[in-house]
Design goal:
Layout (H helix, E strand, L loop, with lengths): L6 H11 L6 H26 L9 H10 L4 H22 L7 H20 L1
Helix pairs in contact: 1-2, 1-5, 2-4, 2-5, 3-4, 4-5
Length: 122
């Protein structure tokens, strides 16, 4: 049985709602990261299921580009959203400044939910 990547979205929501005051920003940063990876891995697996060979290098760029260049408007939206989520995830995972706030984490989570909805539609 394979891992249910959508559970990362459940975790992202828990991290936002139940964060601890002394490490609040760590919870929010992790929530953004899990929101992205939850839908990214599902999107990647859909491409694999269509027979595409996913490269080991530039994996994220490749997956996002496949969706963005699609002639299917839903897939194109998925690609645009994944690109935005990746930027948010990179900021959360790699940049010391600026501070991450709750609104950013909630925004990433909600965008990931929309991606998940659209992935189920294709």
């Amino acid at each position: 049985m394979s891992f249910g990547w959508q559970f990362y979205l459940n975790l992202a929501k828990i991290l936002i709602d139940e964060r601890k005051a002394n490490i609040e920003e760590a919870y929010l940063r992790t929530s953004i990261s899990r929101s992205y990876y939850g839908v990214f891995c599902i999107a990647r697996n859909i491409l694999k299921g269509k027979g595409l060979k996913i490269p080991r290098t530039d994996l994220h760029k490749y997956v996002i580009t496949q969706y963005k260049k699609s002639t299917n408007p839903i897939e194109e939206k998925i690609g645009e959203s994944l690109a935005r989520l990746r930027k948010k995830r990179n900021k959360a995972d790699y940049l010391d400044q600026p501070q991450i706030c709750e609104n950013e984490a909630r925004s990433a989570y909600l965008e990931a939910q929309k991606v998940l909805y659209n992935l189920k539609r294709i």
